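quick one before i forget lol
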Amino acid sequence: MNRDPLTKGGADALRAELKKLKTEDRPAVIAAIAEARAHGDLKENAEYHAAREQQGFIEGRIQHLESTLSHAQIIDVTTLNPGGKVVFGATVTVADEDDNEIRYQIVGDLEADVAANKVAISSPIARALIGKEEGDVGVVAAPGGERELEIVEVEYL
């Protein structure tokens, strides 16, 4: 079976979300359903139907998170010794052709977040940088053409 990689930080975030869903959100929606039932006729009770829909979402998310965590390969990048190379979990500072510096962390597909500069290991940027070292140039096949990114710094946080 193929195990999806997760950084230790990503796994911790998923565990925290799972705990919140189980200890806060699930009990709250159960209470909301009980309160809506007390109002009588369930056919025309919008509160009841909304609470049941929310319950379905919460239960589905709990199942998804439990499955994801049980099948994930959790990698703590701080325990690796990649010798300065860009590897899964590394935080890489790159400079583009215009000398604009950008920091990316290479993470698993499940925890990728472009807004937070967390790029998936399967993304073109990550594929162009993996295995390279400071000073190397990665060529990214972007929709607007190829982009060269020079690796300025590699960190294992």
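fyi Residues 129 and 138 are 5 Å apart (CA to CA).
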